[in-house]
Amino acid sequence: MSNVDMDTKRLKLEQAVRTYFEACNEANRDKFYSVLADDVIHYFPPQVGGPYRGKEAVANLWIKFVTENGSQWTIDRLVCDGREAAIEWTHFKTRVGEHIRGAEWYEFDAAGKITEIRAYYASPRDVSAPANELEGFPYAEKGFPLTSPTRDGESKR
Predict the structure, then answer these.
(1) How far apart, in whole angstroms, are the C-alpha atoms of residue 142 and residue 139?
(2) Could you tell me which residues are beta bridge partners of residue 84?
(3) Which class is domain 3-121?
(4) Where are the domains of the chain?
(5) pLDDT tens per residue across span 14-37
(6) Orientation of helix 3-26 relative to helix 55-69, angle to 10°
(7) Cβ 48 vs Cβ 134: under 8 Å
(8) Is the peptide bond before 138 cis (omega within 30 degrees of 0)?
């Protein structure tokens, strides 16, 4: 893929994330559906809820937050390599008077629709849990290490 093609794809994926956040802030179902794949999965840290499966479930979640909490989000940082994207965000719950900061990792299909969102919150580690991981995320299936590296630097899977 040429640099021009990669830049075009990167800009398209960045715009998908920005449109997703517009959809969140506007509680706009049509905008959600324009950028989310039908089978999108949104993962969250433990005890937060989820994973949410399908574009209707994801849209319903954020529309409810806007309606009930006056939620609004900012994208504080966004990086994209033309294949995946990562952001830092702030979620303001205006009716509750609180905010949450975090980060998300985005994966996309060939058409540039969001297929997976993995949310990470800026919060303390749960010392009572043996593994602090996203609830329901298929770490083994995705090739993430399940054990610590050996002394020679290789991870046992």
Answers:
(1) 5
(2) 107
(3) alpha beta
(4) 3-121
(5) 999 999 999 999 999 999 999 999
(6) 50
(7) no
(8) no
